[in-house]
Design a protein that fits this description.
single chain, alpha+beta, Thiol Ester Dehydrase, Chain A
Amino acid sequence: MVRDSFVTERKVTFTREQIAAYAEASGDMNPIHLDDEFARSVGLPSLIAHGMLQMGIAATVAGEAAGGPHRLRRLAVRFAGMVVPGDTVTFSAEQVGEGKLEVKAFNQHGEAVLTKSVAEYGTHG
């Protein structure tokens, strides 16, 4: 049975400390995530948050919307924009069909960070 349409949201303000902690935990020490000067030298506005950090937050929101992370079966995301320290990103998961959620993320300027993203979950158990 498909529940009435609902949206689960979470706002996250990204910090340099959070990005550095994720780099350490994940082992992804690419300087575009840790060094402003290096990031600018390769054409970025500043250091940027890891895509997998964003995907992890999206998965958390999708898991909440699905009734628990154990119900998630699939998550596919499309990265649409960069996240820099100080950005506040609203992650959302909206029911779009039985066992299917549309996952999105927009920064404080209304610019897409994640688009065309979907989560599928088991409707039993």
